[in-house]
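Quick log. Single chain, no ligands specified.
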Amino acid sequence: GGMMTDGSGKGKGKIGKPPPPKAKGAQKGHNSLEYGKEPVATPQDATPLPKPQPEEALKLLARLQHGDGSWEPSEELALGLGLHVFALEIPRKPAQDVPAWNVVVSTTLACQALQRCISIIGSAKTDASAGRSEALAVAAEHSVLGSKVLDAAGEWLEAAWDKAKQHVRARQRHELDLKVKSILEELLPLPSWKEQLKAKMAIHKTCEVCGSEYTAAVGKCTRCFPPERPTVDVDQENRMWRSLPPAPLHVDWQQCEGALHVEGGSGGVTLLHVGEGVLVLKKQRMTAAAEFLAIQVAKAIGIRVADMRLISWAEEEFQEISAAIRKTSSFEKNNLLGIWRSSTEFLGILEYIPGCTVQGPEFQRRLQDMEPDSLQNFWFEVGEIVAYDALINNVDRIPLLWDNEGNTANLMLLDNLVKENRVVGIDQAVVPIVAAGPGRERFLSRLKELSEAVFRKQWQDSALVSSSLDKVSECFMLSCGVQVDKTTLMSGLLQGLTKVANLMEDGSLATALDEAIAAGRQIFRPATVDMGHKELPHMRDFILVTAETIALARRTAFAA
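-> predicted structure:
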């Protein structure tokens, strides 16, 4: 790792009023929980129950679902998820009026658990998306609602929360979702795609035909079985999405015409066709504030990154987006589109970047087809982005300063035919290193040495820069099979570092950061969970320290 924080079916019919009618698998009697009575066991004397198996839990959850989409709180439901019955008794806060609270709790739990089972089962398949579709089909077989198993659950919850007072709904709902999520993370942990890939990359095989080595992540010898050039426009739907332009970040959500969920590292993103263009929706996590500030810094120094607007669950627009997705034909075809709505307090509306990631055969082919001046512009722009990453300590992209393998997929190449401004950064974040400990000192020492060598235009003579550039070359070779134009990349780095030094010395960087912090405080004011917003002042201070290190390196280089 690199320099981290420490230095190391739509169901549009009328929704029935809770409590719901009985459906198969949900019988009254000893199996139902009667709230107000003392539980059979208490948290103090309870022993842990066996964790549920996703395949069996999925079938049970589907079987216990009522015809209106809800789940009744029952002992069978609790035990099927490896819980004692008292675990379902999540109290509501005083003076908060949420009708049928116990059924809301059990339905929230069952809905999230069902989504997790589908994701876990799907991830075990070679084609995860197809695996999830298969798991959803199994749930449909066991549910009285068939293919509407998830859709109806979402609609029931929407209707139940609508009965609550407006000022109660958003915060109470979110707090319940987080509580349920914390329970299920222990019982049904979602697999880490990074860990899975890392494990496969660690398994080395030897081809029986030619003797070449390859990893389990590849699956077969690329020399004997070279990968076919992928066709980006696989079908009509893909051609449609790829041909659409970006939509503005403020739109009329009633114009939403379609949705497409794209898998990715942190839950993926959802593309929305709104009006004449496309927007990207992304669930925000604890790095939301760091990503927000990173975008503001990029704007200040003139680096092209995907823009983003944040909205909170408490805003009406959040509900408008949810309603817009549910009305699309895409939602009926793929109920999994609804998963992004659960357990998130902020939603990012991101700029859609029509292009390809800087990774894989498609990018390799496009780079090989470039005219010489366009190719030179590409490497120059990559160098500028490296300077930006150094300023904010964005470790997950180009490994020039950091001891990691890099991730070129966090760069995109625009589809447009212009020669300049075609490289766009995505998924960047400010990663401040704490002042205590050796991590910050080590990072700043590397940054100073790199910056001085670049400003002196003597980077070829620096052992640190040479070894770092070798890592960058290896990173691009492994990810997309291309040779790095080191000289042009370093020219772009010089340009980027010069911008940073100029903005630091004239005070405009500090001003831009102050404005960004003030805006961030307003955006995250409704937050009830940690979105990283309390660290914004520390991020500002860290960026100013890195910027001053770059400016000092320039003064030192020019004085020599």
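Residues 367 and 375 are 7 Å apart (CA to CA).
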